[in-house]
Amino acid sequence: MHRTYSLRSSKAPTASQLQSPPPPPSSTKSKFFGKGGIASSFRKSMAGATGPELSRKLSQYIKMEKNVMRATELTARERRDVAKQLSLWGEENDEDVSDVTDKLGVLIYELGELEDQYVDKYDQYRITLKTIRNIESSVQPSRDRKQKITDEIAHLKYKDPQSPKISVLEQELVRAEAESLVAEAQLSNITRESLKAAFDYLFDATRELAEKNALIAGYGKALLELLDESSITPGETRPTYDGYEASKQIIIDAENALASWTLDGAAVKPTLSLHQSEYDGEHLDEEAEKEAAEEFAKHDEDTENVSEAK
Hints:
By secondary structure, this protein is mainly alpha-helical. The protein folds into two domains: 15-232 and 239-270, Substrate Binding Domain Of Dnak, Chain:A, Domain 2, CATH 1.20.1270.60; 272-310. The protein is built from seven helices and no strands. The protein is elongated and about 110 Å long. The relative contact order is 0.10. It comes from Pichia sorbitophila (strain ATCC MYA-4447 / BCRC 22081 / CBS 7064 / NBRC 10061 / NRRL Y-12695) (Hybrid yeast). Residues 166-193 form a coiled coil. Residues 1-36, 277-310 are annotated as: Disordered. One of its GO terms (molecular function) is lipid binding.
């Protein structure tokens, strides 16, 4: 947030940036490639056409996510430009409109800053997924080698069943299978570990962006309350605007709220219907026992009725 609380002055680092240094800038940030277009489509189409067969689908996914990230980067840049333009337009209006639009510009500019920080965190998510892609690429040769030996053995058994080379190849196949088992186990372990870590990065960053956007929206609506909406007649003048201190305080409050936000204090918590509390479980068990008792009693009653009929 701007320490001067205006887009018409220079910007200083926020408290949150000083306390928690951001991750390194995204490796994809560039003025040329950030705009997407033909280069974006070309990368997406080529990603799944080259490299080991096993890793092609994930490679294409990672490239597609790169395009998403660059689009977000472009949005962040455009949003900052929009914020400056809003402040520029409002400067020549009445005092209340001038002050409020300038402060709204500060908030909108901060939205762009948050999206830019999100891009850096998004890149960490992609980099973690590359770990899976790399292990998939390394596993492919062991699979290919095992398949090649298997094919050679099948060919020799068909062409020359008595060939002494068959036993040699079978021994090689045993070794290849052992190597493949190790590689497949590594792939299984790393896939799960890296998949969880990658999407933890993504969802934590998404939650932070969403909740901070919601905070900014709330303070933005508070700024709008400072505008005098009452209608005036021709020749009538509006009361003198006295909201400068109030608008500045709203920006200060917004800055403090953003700086103090933590993931542990996130307001939105997921509610899962898959998990039940111990109380719910006990309650369900009691219900089940009651239903079973009623069914058993009904069965006894039917049996007694049948006996009496006989």
